[in-house]
Amino acid sequence: MTTTIHGLDPATGDVLELQVDTSITRMTRRPQEAGEDLPFLAPGLIDLQVNGFGGIDINGPDVSAERITAMSDALAGIGVTTWVPTIVTASEEAICHALRCIAETRASSPALAHAIPFAHVEGPFLSAEDGPRGVHDIEQIRPLDADEVTRWQSAGPVGLVTVSPHTDDAPEQIARIVSGGVMVAVGHTHGSTPQITAAVDAGASLSTHLGNGIFPRLARHPNPIWTQLAEDRLTCGLIADGHHLPPETLEVMLRAKGPDRAFLVSDATELAGREPGLYRTAVGGEVELTEDGRLSYVGTEMLAGAASDVAAGLRFVLRSTSLSLPDALALVTRTPGRVLGRDTTLRTGAVADLVTLTTDGTIQQVWRHGALIERP
C-alpha cells in the first residue's frame, strides 16, 4: 500500500512530497507556498544507548525476545525507529543471555533487524574506582579481554563495547576487538591523556556519554573530558536530559565537537516515563526518581541512568542551546546513522522510517517501514 507524506525540509524550507511503501518510492520537492502550513519532515530518530524503556529492562532477569519487541514498539511510538539495546556490566552468562534474546528478536522480522542493528555492551571492562564506575556492579568489573568479546559474538550481535583504557594492555586488547568487527568506545574511565590517545590509536572511535561516568571532581587540566573533546577521531555520545549535562556544558561540548562528531543518547532505563519515587532496579539497586526527572542512586549524588528519551533530548537541545533545528536533528539522525554505517538522507530507496515534527522538536507523527505508528 502506497502512502503520500508531505512535510518541510528542515534545512531548506522546501515542501517534500514522499510516496512510500516500506521504503521511499518517489520524492519531489517544491518551494513552500504562501500560507501553506506543514510540519517539518525528518528521518526517524536513532538512539545508540537504550538500557530499558516502558517498564522493560534489557538487563533484567525476565528479558526476552517478546519484551524487546514490545520495547521497540514503544520506542517507535515516540519517534525512535532505530535503537541499540545496551547491556551493562554483568556476568558473562548474563551478558550472553541478553545477547541471545536480542539475536532472537532480530531474527523474527526484517523490520526488527533494521530497528535493532546490534547490541552495545557497556562494561564490564570499566574503571573500578568510585565515580568513573558509576553504578556498575563492582563485583563484575574485570580486566579488558578481547577473548570474552569474541565469546559474546557467538551469542549475539555485538557491535559496540565501552571500555576504560587505563591498563597497559588496553591498546592491544582494543585493536583485537576492533579487528573482530566490533566498535570500541571510551567510557567510565579514569584513564590518562596518553592512555586515551593510545586507545584511539588502537581503533577506539567513540566516547560513551561524555561528561558522565567520571569523577565528580576533576583536575582542572588535564582530565579525560578535555582529552576526548580535543580528539577529532572520537565521536561523542551526549545525554541531553538536563541532569547529566547542564545546558552550558552541553553547549560547549557541542561547539567543540560540532554536529558531525556528536550524537544524543538517552541512556534510558526501564523507569523512563514512570512516576517519581523509590525503585529497586536490576541495575543499580535502590534508585530514586525525583519530580524533575533526575534518576540517582539512593544516598549518593551519582546518576543511575536516565528516565528520559532521545526525543526529549532533541527538544532540550533546541530549548537550551544555540543549535538550529537541522543541526539538532543531525544529532539524532545523520551522525548516529553514520556510526551505524547508514545514510539517513531522505531519498528514493531509503527505508521509510520517518517523523514529522514542530519547530521546537515535538514529534507529531511517526512512520516505521512506511506504516503509521499509533503514538501514546
TrEMBL record:
The Amidohydrolase-related domain extends over: 41-371
| Molecular function via GO | N-acetylglucosamine-6-phosphate deacetylase activity
Does Ion transport appear among the keywords? no
User: EC?
Assistant: 3.5.1.25
Going by the entry's taxonomy, the superkingdom of the source organism is recorded as Bacteria
Q: What are the record keywords, sorted?
A: Carbohydrate metabolism, Hydrolase, Metal-binding
Q: Which PANTHER family match?
A: N-ACETYLGLUCOSAMINE-6-PHOSPHATE DEACETYLASE
Name the family the entry cites: Belongs to the metallo-dependent hydrolases superfamily. NagA family.
Q: What is this protein called?
A: N-acetylglucosamine-6-phosphate deacetylase
Q: Which organism is it from?
A: Brachybacterium rhamnosum
Q: What is the lineage of its organism?
A: Bacteria, Bacillati, Actinomycetota, Actinomycetes, Micrococcales
